[in-house]
Amino acid sequence: MHLPTIRSLFAATCLLSFVAALSAQAPAAPKLEFPAASPTATLKQRVGVTDIEISYARPSMKGREIFGKLEPFGAVWRTGANNATRVTFSTDVKIQGSALAAGTYELFSIPGPSEWTVIFQKVGKQWGAYAYKPENDTLRVKTKSVALTAPVETLTIDLNDVRDTSATLNITWAKTRVPVKIDVDVVTTLVPQIEAAMAGTGDKKPYAQAAMFYLENNLDLKKAAQWMDAAIAAQPDLCYLVYRKGLILEKMGDKAGALAAAKASLVVAEKATMPALKDEYVRRNNELIARLK
Fold first, then answer.
1. Cβ(140)–Cβ(23) under 8 Å?
2. pLDDT at position 14, please?
3. Which residues of the chain does CATH 1.25.40.10 include?
């Protein structure tokens, strides 16, 4: 091989190596992320002892007329944007009074001028409602919509009116709110667990919590009184436990016992070193005493 040819090859090799080195040192192009037209949101809420999770994409009005126009009346809607909205229940529930087993469902709806159909369907990983098939419905319920005076720009699905045994799922967008009642059977779920805990061994049992649960759910009040006695025996200086014993006895119809408990709690409350605790339970006990007289 001639010398000029060798020199040319050497120069070309050096040039390629230099370019490769520069390429290796050059910073990678940043990953582009554009704002989503309908950003995804996830809501988690415990109702009683039931965990509810909702995942949905949130479209905005952006000057458009929504129900009856963008989302026609009488047509199936994915109740959101992009993928169908998903709802998960950790226990069996009732929706508008109808039973629905624990599990994950896709949430569809059929808007109407004053009444909506809300649909819980088996999970099909659907994008939109284009492949929707009514034979896959698990539950359909109807609910009256509520007209709003001020528009809500971005679709909002929330859980409100949360109680131990119920909550309201609200689908709110534009000038419409669609309430869907959810009931959970916390008593059926929790009572066997309470009874098992109380029948078990060990000193640390949830006496006070169990007693109040039985009181608030109109269960066995004799058991509630016994459990509260056990809680008081372990911590006799807690005025609020003695006060709650008075509430149980009041509900049992034992006015004399309830009055004695309220007076005993009042004595302890008046000696409390925490001003807020003292004020609250002096007031509560005086109110209970007034009711019992």
1. no
2. 53
3. 186-292
| Residue 188 to residues 66, 135, 206, 224, Cα–Cα distance (Å) | 42, 31, 18, 17
Buried b / exposed e over 174-205, threshold 16 CB at 10 Å, is: bbbbbbbebbbbbbeebbeebeeeeeeeeeeb
| 3-class SS of residue 170 | strand
Each residue's pLDDT tens digit, 62-118: 999 999 999 999 999 999 999 899 999 999 999 999 999 999 999 999 999 999 999
On whether the CB atoms of residues 100 and 119 are closer than 8 A, the answer is: no
DSSP letter, residue 30? P
pTM exceeds 0.90:
no
- For 267-281, write each residue's pLDDT tens digit: 999 988 899 999 999
Task: Give the whole-angstrom CA distance, residue 116 versus residue 45.
Answer: 24
Inter-helix orientation angle 239-252/221-234, to 10°: 160
Name residues whose C-beta falls within 8 Å of residue 245's C-beta, 6 or more positions apart in sequence: 225, 228, 229, 232, 261, 265
Q: 220-250, pLDDT tens digit by residue?
A: 999 999 999 999 999 998 999 999 999 999 9
- The residue with tokens 């005076």 is 149
* DSSP per-residue string spanning 175-227: EEEEEEEEEE-HHHHHHHHHHHHHHSSSS---HHHHHHHHHHTT--HHHHHHH
Element (H, E) at 9: helix 3-25
CATH topology of domain 186-292: 1.25.40
Q: Which residue has the tokens 């608030």?
A: 216
User: Can you tell me whether residue 106 is helix, strand or coil?
Assistant: strand
Q: Can you tell me the distance from the alpha carbon of 242 to that of 233, in angstroms, rounded to the nearest whole number? A: 10
